[in-house]
Q: What sequence folds into this?
């Protein structure tokens, strides 16, 4: 009798032991055990097969093959060496978006299916680990182009930019002829923030001049920087928004070569007009033609440079001018910059507080702002006797603003404006400023 009781007790203990045994994997902080009776009545779901993932800077969307008969899924993330629950999905779907993640960071996930039984959930085997990386964070300032420089012969250009958390950077150059951005380099490593590009070793038939013209070397390079991340498997790459430079870079020596005769004239004549006691205003001539007699006359007024334009000029000079540039170089660069970066103000919305502010801050203007900016610049640089002239030439029936200055007995003209409508410095006296003007 004693032996019989002992056998019954051992059998009962064995049943209890089996009913408490865990089914499936054990995750930290997650109870995955079920009863033996539940296991007998509910089928264990199949292992989840993860298919792919997509990502942006703050989230990862995981997709998998739906498990037949599954009630739902649980998402886990590897944290400090163990998998922690991220979310429980209470329906049979094939994807889930994990949000609130850091940019340019790799995470490891697992997905597990479960089926709801009569006495608890029955868990399948977790999927294989998925390494997923988020995209870099887009920024207009973090990876902005900070400097562009070139060799004296323009054979190569060095580009520098700010760094951000990423795997590397794609470098784009704007093709001004075909009006499109062209990828020219891939710089790996988030701390590598410069590259030197050879500018005309592309094809034997391409001359230096031709290739630079296509890429904008003679009239300004525009670069775009785009950070990217790549996951540890090397199968997925994600990109930040491209930071495309909103202005071109101009090599002053190239501009001097292109505008050689005009630049030579400007360099020779401009110092003659420098004044030690130059006023803080310039004269504006409003010129008109008498419709009956055809006579041309002008009104002459003082125009003062606004504080907004003075500040815009100081900011522009700090950002663009070389340390030892002459006034001729500064004017050449500025006139060319306005020509390449401004949009014609068809809706008359330019209102930055002054001509120079309009064209360098808003990058908007018409002939009055384009050439008024040069007149303001000349005043700031200390030149006396320069003019913003509004005229109705006797041979044409429309008004146009142009900057002119008298040096000795000769009148010279600057013409800024949109592409295809400019010159640097020429003898020009369509409406002579030497004529007596009515003062106001």
A:
């Amino acid at each position: 009798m004693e032996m019989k009781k002992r056998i019954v007790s051992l059998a009962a203990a064995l049943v209890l032991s089996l009913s408490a045994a865990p089914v499936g994997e054990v995750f930290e902080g997650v109870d995955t055990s079920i009863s033996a009776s539940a296991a007998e009545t509910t089928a264990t779901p199949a292992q989840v097969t993860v298919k792919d993932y997509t990502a942006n800077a703050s989230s990862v969307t995981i997709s998998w093959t739906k498990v037949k008969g599954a009630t739902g899924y649980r998402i886990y993330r590897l944290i400090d060496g163990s998998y922690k629950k991220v979310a429980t999905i209470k329906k049979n779907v094939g994807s889930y978006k994990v949000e609130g993640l850091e940019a340019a960071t790799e995470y490891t996930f697992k997905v597990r299916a479960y089926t709801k039984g009569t006495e608890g959930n029955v868990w399948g085997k977790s999927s294989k680990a998925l390494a997923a990386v988020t995209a870099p964070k887009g920024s207009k300032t973090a990876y902005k182009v900070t400097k562009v420089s070139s060799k004296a012969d323009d054979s190569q250009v060095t580009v520098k930019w700010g760094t951000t958390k990423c795997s590397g950077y794609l470098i784009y150059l704007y093709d001004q002829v075909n009006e499109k951005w062209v990828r020219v380099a891939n710089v790996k490593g988030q701390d590598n923030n410069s590259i030197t590009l050879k500018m005309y070793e592309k094809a034997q038939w391409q001359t230096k001049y031709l290739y630079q013209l296509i890429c904008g070397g003679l009239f300004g390079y525009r670069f775009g920087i785009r950070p990217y991340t790549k996951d540890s498997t090397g199968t997925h790459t994600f990109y930040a928004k491209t930071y495309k430079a909103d202005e071109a870079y101009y090599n002053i020596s190239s501009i001097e070569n292109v505008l050689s005769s005009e630049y030579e004239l400007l360099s020779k004549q401009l110092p003659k007009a420098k004044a030690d006691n130059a006023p803080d205003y310039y004269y504006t001539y409003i010129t008109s033609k008498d419709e009956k007699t055809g006579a041309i006359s002008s009104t002459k007024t003082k125009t003062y440079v606004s504080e907004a334009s003075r500040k815009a000029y100081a900011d522009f000079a700090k950002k663009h001018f070389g340390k030892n540039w002459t006034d001729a170089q500064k004017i050449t660069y500025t006139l060319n910059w306005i020509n390449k970066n401004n949009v014609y103000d068809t809706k008359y919305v330019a209102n930055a507080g002054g001509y120079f502010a309009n064209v360098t801050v808003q990058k908007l203007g018409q002939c009055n702002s384009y050439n008024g900016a040069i007149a303001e610049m000349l005043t700031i640089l200390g030149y006396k006797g320069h003019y913003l002239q509004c005229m109705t030439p006797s041979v044409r029936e429309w008004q146009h603003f142009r900057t002119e200055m008298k040096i000795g007995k000769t009148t010279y003209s600057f013409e800024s404006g949109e592409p295809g409508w400019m010159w640097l410095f020429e003898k020009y006296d369509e409406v002579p400023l030497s004529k007596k003007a009515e003062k106001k």
